[in-house]
Specification:
By secondary structure, the protein is of the alpha+beta class. It is built from five helices and eight strands; from the N terminus they run E-E-H-H-H-E-E-H-E-E-E-E-H. The relative contact order is 0.21.
């Protein structure tokens, strides 16, 4: 993974040895969160739900678990993240994800906004890229929360890359009956 920092964004790129459809396959649903993403399950798994895909956009929504904190990054995030009093009450402890067809994602947290995309480089390689944006007048506490959220997201992305590899392998097997996108 390569990355660079700018004043307001942390930009990252990563190549994955899979067909882009495998990345989409993993990202199109949220039921794998409970089994494949321990930190996300710890942070908000009890309240996570996916909404229907409408007009090219899907939405997933969750609020922090009241019992969150079994994993180090989640525990520290919950302990150190400032209360987001600038947001409406129902969004102060919310994680919202928008999937935008065909290859975009937008993640909104109290301390940051993140986008990511995937691009087919070939039938067997995909470029993942994204950026994490911070508030212009970010406080030290928000910066710490954003860093801890990034640690959680970094692990989640690595887990999703592995799931994409497995999805890609299954598409290539003779047992596969085809791919639905």
């Amino acid at each position: 993974m390569s990355a660079r920092n700018s004043r307001s964004a942390y930009i990252w790129t990563q190549k994955s040895p899979v067909n882009w459809k495998s990345v989409r396959d993993v990202d199109n649903e949220g039921y794998h969160v409970a089994m494949a993403h321990p930190a996300l399950q710890d942070l908000y798994g009890a309240t996570y739900f996916d909404e229907p895909f409408v007009n090219g956009v899907s939405r997933s929504f969750a609020t922090y678990n009241p019992h969150a904190g079994r994993r180090w990054s989640v525990r520290e995030y919950m302990k150190l993240a400032p209360e987001a009093t600038h947001l409406p009450e129902h969004l102060r402890k919310a994680c919202i994800y928008y999937g935008i067809f065909p290859n975009n994602g937008l993640s909104i947290m109290p301390e940051s906004v993140q986008f990511y995309q995937e691009f087919a480089l070939s039938t067997g390689e995909t470029l993942l890229r994204g950026a994490i944006y911070r508030y212009k007048d970010e406080t030290r506490e928000q910066a710490v929360a954003r860093y801890l959220a990034y640690r959680i997201d970094r692990d989640t992305m690595n887990e999703d890359v592995q799931l994409s590899v497995w999805s890609n392998e299954s598409m290539l097997s003779e047992a596969s009956e085809g791919f639905y996108l």
